[in-house]
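In response to the reviewer comment on reproducibility (Comment 2.3), we provide here a single inverse folding case reported in full, input and output, so that an independent group could reproduce the run without further information from us. The structure tokens appear first.
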């Protein structure tokens, strides 16, 4: 797909996020919207996957370490064909496969159940180590939040991956500068992230605009060329990207739009789609 086509898909993914969170009357739109471009690129361009066979042995794996951004992942999976887009409206409903955090036992396409921050990257490291041990060729991708990087378990996992040269592992840090209680700096900054990953023997790529498809494509192309070390992509993103009143607003980390806000958000996304 061209970068413009991917951007159009990402815009549809954002519509799905807003629709799902509005229908649930709860959820996490901010980070889901901000990471929509990266997750779209992974599932529509980068990863070896097959929606018709979600458990195929040689598929690439994805672990949403920032599990609260599940609406974004669900919307990507739905638009990729793992389940009907209409099912997004069942988010967080009793009996739905699409709960507030990813559950690998319910929703097709989920490789790891996540939600407790810091644990997802450890699972991804384990998957990458298993692939090396058994001689399997699949790659493992994981998406973390910058606030999540305040968790010590993140750095235990990073230490292990670097020491074991897991070059089949790519960790993307969604660096939007905001977390549930405020800015990263106000809460407990883990910066500078790039230097920390380098200290743990990772190849680091700094992505200036994690909402730009051309730049996203370039960094993942670079990541594929790296050998003998895991790759960390520090991606600068806009929390709430695509919805004007949500962008860079910490209050939209974890709340749903009301009916009026829903209509405004969907109108803005529709207009953005037409421009693409």
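Designed residues, in position order:
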């Amino acid at each position: 797909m061209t970068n413009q086509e991917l951007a159009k898909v990402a815009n549809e993914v954002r519509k799905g996020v807003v629709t799902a969170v509005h229908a649930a009357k709860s959820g996490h739109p901010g980070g889901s919207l901000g990471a929509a471009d990266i997750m779209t690129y992974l599932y529509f361009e980068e990863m070896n996957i097959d929606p018709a066979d979600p458990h195929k042995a040689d598929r690439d794996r994805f672990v949403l370490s920032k599990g609260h951004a599940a609406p974004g992942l669900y919307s990507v999976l739905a638009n990729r064909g793992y389940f009907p887009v209409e099912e997004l409206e069942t988010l967080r409903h009793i009996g739905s496969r699409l709960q507030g955090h990813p559950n690998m036992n319910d929703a097709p396409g989920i490789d790891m159940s996540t939600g407790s921050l810091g644990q997802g990257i450890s699972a991804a490291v384990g998957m990458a180590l298993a692939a090396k041990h058994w001689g399997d060729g699949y790659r493992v991708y994981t998406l973390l939040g910058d606030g999540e990087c305040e968790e010590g378990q993140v750095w235990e996992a990073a230490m292990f991956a670097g020491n074991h040269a897991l070059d089949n592992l790519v960790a993307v840090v969604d660096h939007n500068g905001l977390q549930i209680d405020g800015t990263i700096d106000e809460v407990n900054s883990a910066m500078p992230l790039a230097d920390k990953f380098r200290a743990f023997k990772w190849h680091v790529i700094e992505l200036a605009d994690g909402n730009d498809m051309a730049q996203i494509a370039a960094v993942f192309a670079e990541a594929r060329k790296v050998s003998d070390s895991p790759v960390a992509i520090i991606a600068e993103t806009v929390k709430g990207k695509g919805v004007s009143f949500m962008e860079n607003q910490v209050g939209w980390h974890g709340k749903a739009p009301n009916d009026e806000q829903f209509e405004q958000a969907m109108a803005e996304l529709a207009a953005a789609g037409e421009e693409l």
